[in-house]
Design goal:
The protein is mainly α. It has one domain. Helices cover 63% and strands 4% of the residues. It is built from nine helices and three strands; from the N terminus they run ααβααβαβαααα. The protein has helices spanning 20-28, 32-55, 65-77, 87-113, 125-128, 146-159, 161-172, 177-184, 188-207; strands at residues 57-59, 120-122, 143-145. Helix 4 crosses helix 8 (177-184) and helix 8 crosses helix 9 (188-207). The radius of gyration is 18 Å and the shape is globular. The N and C termini lie far apart (51 Å).
């Protein structure tokens, strides 16, 4: 990439190259070169998040993982007041952007169908978030649509922002308990407790 901060010529050694966190912080200060340099370093993880998010939609989605990453990246790049502090925080915000992209696409599809079925996903996937998609292959679980989940998360965020954030990280990004704990800056034990309560709350709301 042009303007990359990574140098393979004379000068700093590979061990002196900026870390992802350093590049993210530089990007947050408006350094366009840092944005270019960090992109290939985070792309593989963003693509993994996108694949997991899309696999949890049962049917009807028209986005490919690369397109979801591209749209999310454009939104991330538009966060002009963002102050990236760490990899965990960056991927947490990336999960939020992917959720917004998926919800926007779901609303568009729903509007085009004029009352047709909205994009649906398995509610049981909330129980399996953070696991590999094949871990519960063949399960037959009740379903909710993505728009209903988004509305429920908005209500949860009004009551408890951290629990809503946790669902976003676990469900849309597929983060594990340790990864979610790092992103939220809390202990794994806290995440475990909050996750159990959030799942129960969402099940009650979505079953109403």
């Amino acid at each position: 990439m042009s303007g990359s901060l990574m140098s393979d010529g004379p000068g700093p050694s590979a061990n002196d190259a900026p870390t992802v966190t350093e590049l993210l912080r530089a990007w947050g200060t408006g350094d366009a070169d840092a944005s270019e340099a960090v992109a290939p370093l985070v792309y593989a993880e963003l693509l993994r998040q996108a694949r997991r998010a899309l696999r949890r939609e049962v049917d009807g989605h028209t986005l490919e993982p690369t397109a979801l990453v591209h749209e999310a990246w454009m939104r991330l790049d538009g966060q002009h007041d963002a102050r990236w502090e760490s990899r965990a925080q960056f991927f947490a915000v990336a999960a939020q952007m992917m959720r917004r992209v998926l919800v926007d696409h779901a609303r568009t599809r729903h509007a085009l169908k004029r009352g047709g079925a909205a994009a649906r996903l398995t509610l049981g996937a909330l129980e399996r978030a953070g696991q590999e998609p094949d871990a519960a292959a063949g399960s037959s679980l009740d379903r909710v649509d993505l728009l209903a989940l988004d509305d429920a998360l908005a209500r949860l965020a009004a009551l408890d922002p951290q629990k809503a954030r946790l669902v976003e990280l676990r469900y849309f990004a597929g983060l594990s308990i340790p990864e979610a704990a790092a992103a939220l800056g809390v202990s794994q034990a806290t995440v475990g407790r909050e996750w159990a309560v959030a799942r129960m709350w969402l099940r009650r709301e979505l079953a109403a």
